Amino acid sequence: MSWRKLLGLALLVAAVATGWLAWNRRDRGEPQAAATERSDYVLRDFEMAMLGKDGIESVRLQAPELQRNREDQSLAILQPLFLMPGEDGGWRLAADQGWVNSDGSLARLEGNVKGDSAEGHPVPTTFRTGRLELLPDKHLARTDDRVTLTQPGIMQTGVGFEANLRTQRYKFLSQVKTRYEPSSRR
Questions:
Q1: Which domain of life is it from (predicted)?
Q2: I need a labelling partner for 13 at 20 to 30 A (CA). Which of 28, 113, 116, 125 fits?
Q3: pLDDT along the chain (186 residues), means of 10
Q4: What is the pLDDT of residue 13?
């Protein structure tokens, strides 16, 4: 047999094998993981206002990126900043990451969560924690993690925390420690 016949036979076998492989793989769609990971849409460098059931602004959100999950219609947010209105100015809540459920009734903040009362508030207040749940319609923030709350002259820490962001009433759930730092008299 000549080398041309051998080469032709090898090419024929390769063509048949390639055709058979292509035929067997034709009905396989995209992998499921790729389909579920895609977002409906992505927003970048945005600001959005959410209204409560009464038509009044309940929260304003600013972030560099938001992605909407097509499966459960939830929102994944990078470096969210939630601005919550309230008596005496409201709150600024920031974190490394955020998540909001499909109807906007629950937001979760994770990583370096910072809560700061608005500038000009009569009693400047801050709190720091690792994780926080936010219920905008109820003006409630809560966590089971350790929290540090600071106000002029006082610092409190505890595990578990609930705060009404409208009325600025706070409740620690356990392991509470308080340190008073009175201002010096002059």
A1: Bacteria
A2: 28
A3: 76 78 67 58 87 79 91 91 79 91 89 87 86 87 91 90 84 89 64
A4: 77
**85 φ/ψ angles, rounded to the nearest 5 degrees:** -70, 155
CA dihedral in degrees (42, 65, 128, 50; nearest 10)?
-60
Helix (H, G, I), strand (E, B) or coil at 68: strand
DSSP string for 1-59: --HHHHHHHHHHHHHHHHHHHHHHHTT--S-HHHHHH-EEEEEEEEEEEEE-TTSSEEE
Query: Alpha-carbon distance 93 to 81, whole Å?
Result: 6
pLDDT at 87: 67
Query: CA-to-CA distance for 186 and 82, rounded, in angstroms?
Result: 39
Helix (H, G, I), strand (E, B) or coil at 155: strand
| Token pair belonging to 72 | 């459960």
Beta-carbon count within 10 A of 22 CB: 9
Quote the distance between the C-alpha of residue 89 and its chain's center: 24
Q: Which residue has the tokens 């009569």?
A: 122
91 and 114 Cβ atoms separated by less than 8 Å: no
CA dihedral 5, 7, 9, 15 (to 10 degrees): -150
- Rg of the Cα atoms in the chain: 28
The residue whose two tokens read 């820490």 is 157
Hey, what CATH class is 40-180 in?
Answer: mainly beta
- Alpha-carbon distance of 146 to 128, in angstroms, equals 8
Six token digits for residue 44 = 């970048």
